[in-house]
Amino acid sequence: xxxxxxxxxxxxxxxxxxxxxxxxxxxxxxxxxxxxxxxxxxxxxxxxxxxxxxxxxxxxxxxxxxxxxxxxxxxxxxxxxxxxxxxxxxxxxxxxxxxxxxxxxxxxxxxxxxxxxxxxxxxxxxxxxxxxxx
Amino acid sequence: xxxxxxxxxxxxxxxxxxxxxxxxxxxxxxxxxxxxxxxxxxxxxxxxxxxxxxxxxxxxxxxxxxxxxxxxxxxxxxxxxxxxxxxxxxxxxxxxxxxxxxxxxxxxxxxxxxxxxxxxxxxxxxxxxxxxxxxxxxxxxxxxxxxxxxxxxxxxxxxxxxxxxxxxxxxxxxxxxxxxxxxxxxxxxxxxxxxx
Lengths: 134, 196
Fold this sequence. Notes:
The complex is a heterodimer of chains A (134) and B (196).
Chain A: H1 2-17, H2 33-45, H3 62-76, H4 81-92, H5 107-133
Chain B: H1 2-25, E1 46-48, E2 56-58, E3 67-72, H2 77-92, E4 96-102, H3 106-116, E5 122-126, H4 130-134, E6 142-146, E7 152-157, H5 162-177, H6 185-195
Parallel strand pairs in B: 3-4, 4-5
Antiparallel strand pairs in B: 1-2, 3-6, 6-7
């Protein structure tokens, strides 16, 4: 009895929550499947500056719509991924990239988890040693 | 005794530090992004004049004067708030004011100006938003400060207030007005071309 109730609850949960994967689709037409893949990949790489936790693929904001349109046109016209990225970064700075570039400015950002980990291990070792002495 | 307190205080202070970071980080408030155009020339554009579709607004007009370019739209609520201040600025003639009408309907925009006033010497009509993208605009209202050479020197995100004017813009504008600008032959030719 409990198993059946549990099963139905699970079924209802799965059916209702699977619709959460909605993405805004403008149904752009592409000449090749590869172009379409590139478009999907690219629009997920860039941040929507209006809703800053969302990518250009997900966001409904006006700017996101316009930038998707821009990326679509550039993909269609044969611009490379690097050219499209440069186009956006030139106008909106590195902040539009979800993944910050690895350079002099961002080296601390990239290495800080490693540094913190080393500090944590060091503290742990020291405390264990201190515990052993007592 | 000291080490016992240390073992208690260290995790607690790390927790408090994290609490503070999360409080600010999750608040949803976004600090204004600095413009990537600062100290670069304003990207050249030629747009139809909102008020007179036989005319155009060309960025060459910025050469030789200190200007503000405000990005606005009739559907932008915050833009209404800055109109009284912009009208005052226009009346006091301290700086040249230009507008960029962003992703708007011409009729709606014209009606909005009738209702809230028009402080702008000229307004470019950017209905596709392509020019705004070239300027790195990500929301309205935004205002760019442009020097005599056509170089962007500052960007205000959000409505232009008296406080921002006093603390950031006015001192910079005073400085920029004192900059010498010698009209080069190429920019002279461009201006002559526009008038023909």
